[in-house]
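User: Um, what's this?
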Amino acid sequence: METGKVWLVGAGPGDIGLFTLKGKEVLSRAEVVVYDSLVGDGVLAMIPREARTIDVGKRASHHTMPQEKINQVLLEEAKKGYRVVRLKGGDPFLFGRGGEELELLAEHHIPYEVVPGVTSPMAVPAYNGIPVTHRDFCSSVHIITGHKRAGQEYDIDFKALVDTKGTLVFLMGVTALPDICRSLLEAGMEPDMSAAILQKGTTAGQKRIVATVSTLEEEVKKQGIETPAIIVVGKVCSLAERFEWAENLPLFGKKVLVTRPKGLISRMAAKLRVQGAEVLELPAIETGAVKDDEKIKEAVNRLESYQWIAFTSPTGVNVFFDKIIELGKDLRCLGGIKIAAIGEGTKKALKEHGLFADLIPQIYDGASLGAEMVKVCEPDAKILLPRASIGNHEILEALSARSDLTVDDVPTYDTHYVTWNVLDETAKFEKGEIDCAVFTSASTVKGFVEATKGLDYTKVTAACIGKQTKAAADRYGMKTYMAKKATIDSVVDLVTEILKS
């Protein structure tokens, strides 16, 4: 068997937007992923479902797996011929013990690459308005591990650190905060030197406490802090309030779950992130062309018999045009057929195939689409309805208002529910870590429920794109809200309204 390869990939400090393009590309091809507790949820959600995952759970003094065992796992998986991604919070070579993991691989001649990650000593202060260097305050920055073995003194020259007059960033030092501050003061640091502790930077859990070296410990006792957090000491900490920016975003501190069909790029997630939310994208469903496709093939081969084609989803559009190409046809086969689309997303999918919809209802649902078609379809019109095999009956009921219309309801794709092994959605809702879930169809609600069996759904605040979606969420007792329009922008406005109130 051919030897595999290992990639040490830095996942960054938490915000998925800080995960590198190369890291994303490497992760997308992984067959085995060995990951830390410090990897952000958004990055974990990008792990391919088909990849085998190994949680080594390293965080502070709590290790699921000893470092020596992790090194051995990487070696063994690579020897089996797999593409192995070692996914590490921050950067693999900055207190990430990446060098130790490579030693065994190098000894056994296993190919490897290192993909650097955005590191928390720079990114977390930046998200808190603290520039780690500033010409008016300092000319150097020093990164120190705050971790020390139990019962032992620091092997750190605190006097040398104080003499640099630079910014000091301590990682993994929350429990040792009293020792760090005391050691700096004993080494001659001014008691009123600005200092800060920064919790869960770049995520929805971000929190900042700014004080001085002599008062920071007391302030932490008063206000509380959670790990992971970093300690920053230096005059630049005094700039935090003046330069803060993340806190000023409308959805700062909020975490939103966006459900979607697998494979669809979520413009909604991007828009929510612009508003400052931490967004967790988890496909609740995945779609695929029906295996028994004789009906759709037959319909495509006699398109000239139809006056209208009505599309009820972007997936329906894409699967239909894939079938046209598969059968050796192109857009000319549509001739003078008119096209109806249920809403903006379906309209956009059609446009990507070079087509404009002749009809879009004012209200984006099946009943409204059917009612509008009843008004405009010519006498004895024949309508092709290529859609999900589990499509609802609203559009058919609306079209039945005219007995002269012939409707071929042709299943083109199947919908399957998706579950995730890496992220425990149920636990996150039970702990109150997710502020809102966004649903864009009734099927995504059902997919979410399949993935979170046992969850108390009264704890779920649901932002729904339309009345069918809301009705599905209502059936499970969720606290539901409905967008004014069935558009991405309207749903984003709804989430902002819910979470700011």
About this structure: The radius of gyration is 28 Å.
